[in-house]
Amino acid sequence: MNDVLARLRSLQATDLPVHGGRTLAYVYDSGLTDVDEVARTAVAAYAGSNGLDPTAFPSLLTMENELVGFAANLLDGPETMVGTVSSGGTESVLLAVQGARDAHPEVAKPNIVVPSTIHAAFFKAAHYFGVEARVVPVGPDFRADVAGMSAAIDSSTVLVAASAPSYAHGVVDPITEIAAVAAARGVRCHVDACIGGWVLPYAARLGRSVPAWTFAVEGVTSISVDLHKYGYTPKGVSLLLHRTPALRRPQYFAHADWPGYTMLNSTMQSTKSGGPLAAAWAVVSTIGDEGYSKLSDEVFQAVDEIVAGIEQIPELSVVAQPDSTLIALGTSEACDPFTICDEMAAAGWFVQPQMAFGGSPATIHLSVSAATLPHVEEFLAALGSAVSAAVASGPVRVDAEVVAFIESLDPDALSDDDFDGLLAASGLVGASDDGELELPTRMAEVNAMLDVASPRMREALLIAFLDRLQRPTR
Questions:
Q1: Is the pLDDT of residue 436 over 70?
Q2: Neighbours of 335 (CB within 10 A)
Q3: What is the mean pLDDT of residues 86-102?
Q4: Is the previous residue joined to 472 through a cis bond, with omega within 30 degrees of 0?
Q5: Does the pLDDT at position 406 exceed 90?
Q6: In a designed cystine with 183, which of 202, 219, 325, 373 is the match (CB 3.0 to 4.6 A)?
Q7: For the chain, how many structural domains are there in total?
Q8: CA–CA distance, 165 with 191 (Å, rounded to integer)
């Protein structure tokens, strides 16, 4: 057993750190070691429990209902509000789209109306469930265009969605206006608050300016909110909340016409570990309302200090004044975001590159956590040094022949030979004689290559790359 655990520790040593406030994407860190210990204990205690049948594991049902009750108080939920625990924001979004579609079996070709900044999970849902996604360009402030979304709604629209906040830019869409437009047409309105749902209410209590977005807004019919983000719980827990039970009912799946047990599911999953739910309940119960208020105060202090610090770095700018805890950074022509991300990684900080889109250049994404606050000064120093290094080396340029090669490819017919050529050009092929694929230590050139590709080509390339990575170890 000791050998196995030692192997686990060795493998994990190459991963990004999940604690310490230095990973500004993918993970969210409260900085509270006692809370982390409570979470680990709860996961272990319920790792073998199965949320498939609440009559067999009633404790899980109790914890789920208590978490939904906490969310109801936080998000201005009416007495009729109900909710379900899912495995994450993507599953919550999938369920919201699936439920909206199945609520209207009379619609032959259903569609959803979304701004261009909506999370990619909505496109995944549209793909899975055969729903058209009508994408409306956002305004210059990166917020949803109410008039454009209104014009896109028709008799086959089953759902309108908006963000609180959007992931790429950290701004809250005009939910009040969007919900009113949807309600006037008799269409459901979903708010994707997976990022902001557990922190924006506290921002408002702290006196920060937050656009209205909760169930207090008439016309909002459902909200998704992740506990494993600013609820600071272990991964694998989100909530999908509906204004009424009737709105949730199409989400359920039941099947009795087979010789086994009657299958009854409230989410996409059947069998699901009780560990993440128990950990979320334990963490929320431990931190409590006052604790979350304190953590929110800390994370917004960090956001404000980072924004102020960026103003002192001439080559950087804040793309949009953040409404929440997410910050998008733009760069001047003197440097590029991909090199800055590499330099930050070398200094022990992970910041996330975002590709060019819709005429806007590539940016750098920061998801700020409460645990980042004590390290803001160190972060800004590292960022300044990273920018200086990026300026000294100059922006990454993709060879014109590589650009031409990428542009000549058909993303729907990408061959192995095409992919091998791109791997060689990008440096993703290892130095061994067998050409084994390996993860590079620096990604600037790879990201620059991806940045010049069209979104469809980028998808095809990354699918092919992931397929090569996911091969059995024999």
A1: no
A2: 23
A3: 98
A4: no
A5: no
A6: 219
A7: 2
A8: 9
For residue 124, being part of any structural domain is answered with yes
Q: CB under 8 Å to 346, separation ≥6 — which residues? A: none
Cα 86 from Cα 342, distance rounded (Å): 34
Is the CB of residue 135 less than 8 Å from the CB of residue 114?
yes
**What is the residue range of 252's domain?**
33-284
pTM exceeds 0.70 for this model: yes
List the one residue out of 268, 250, 278, 259 whose CA is nearest residue 52: 268
**Is the domain of 76 the same as that of 205?**
yes
Q: Does residue 160 sit in helix, strand or coil?
A: strand
Q: Residue 359: which region, alpha, beta or left (left: phi > 0; alpha: psi -120 to 50)?
A: left
Asked whether residue 119 carries a pLDDT value surpassing 80, the answer given is: yes
DSSP state of 389: H
Residues 422/399, Cβ–Cβ less than 8 Å: no
- 264 in Cβ contact with 61 (< 8 Å): no
pLDDT band at 409, cuts 50/70/90?
confident
Does any domain span residue 316?
no
Q: Tally the C-alpha atoms within 13 A of residue 32's C-alpha that lie toward its C-beta.
A: 22
Residue from 141, 210, 145, 194 nearest 360 by CA = 141
Give the CATH number for residue 174. Answer: 3.40.640.10
Residue 40, both tokens: 């680990």
